Amino acid sequence: MAGPPNKAVGESFRGKRRQPNMSAKTTSRHSAVAKNRPLGTDESFSGGSAALPSSSLPQGRMRSASTSRLLLAACLVYTLSVLSGGCAHIQRLLGSLFDRPTLHFQAANVRDLSLGGLTLDLIWKVENPNDVALRLDKLSYAFDIDGRRLTSGVQPKGIEMAARSSSSVSLPFEVRFVDLAGSVLSLLQRDEIDWKAEGSMGFETPAGMLNLPFSREGSTSLPSLPEVELAGASVSNLSLSGVTFNIELGLHNPNAFPVPLDGLSYALRVAGQDVASGNARPPRLEANRHASFSIPVRLSFAETGQAVYHAIQSGSADVGIRGELASGPLDLPLDLSRRVNLR
Question: pTM for this structure?
Fold first, then answer.
């Protein structure tokens, strides 16, 4: 009969169960690494983590993991480059995806034309070829007349340009003739003036502010001075003391706009003698129209002497009228004379 188990062996066994070996427990968790290695000699552990030998993964999984790491690294490098470049890098990237708008000159239109000035509307067409809307935020300009700077400046516009569409941008320039020359009269004796406009339009785009330069030059016809002629003269209300002398003036407006006439100051000369002076109110001159204007002047024979009386008796006389015809800022000088038949 077998004897009882060795007490020392039993106690040793029970002792091992009561106090499990920590190295054995760790080995159980990482058996793929520590298999067939004696306890206390494992060199593959550091700080509770295992360094897996390359032979423990299949070759296909190794290549897949390596490719993923390379892609991740590339993404990180690109992200860092974008962040390091800041907004400038982003704008350059967006700029490469953005088509530059185009600017075309359309027309030069004259409005509000008068003997005192005009307004010149210069119109450009902006074409937006992109799928996003644009905004015209800033406009800088300079405008010259006959090589002389008339005006310049910068102003906000705030015009929206819809995606894939075209819009017209009008630049109005007001021209006052008194600002162009010392004498408006001498200026209006010319046929036209030369102008030049240049500057840039600033558009707010996804790629940042985009400036489109523009430059255009041309010429614009000036208005014509009204034409005044001494059409004739007649007498009425003849008496021993005096006579009414009627001066007939012919007016012509060659312009395509009406010309308001504010007044006429005059001095009348008959038969070589200054006989009267005064003021009269001529009619408004409509566009491209003729008009007649009569100035009645009462003359006294006691003041004019025999020269006027003898001229009336003869039926003709040399008549002259000097003065100024006022129209807005313009004073048109008059110096008319002729021999007329007195009716």
Answer: 0.64
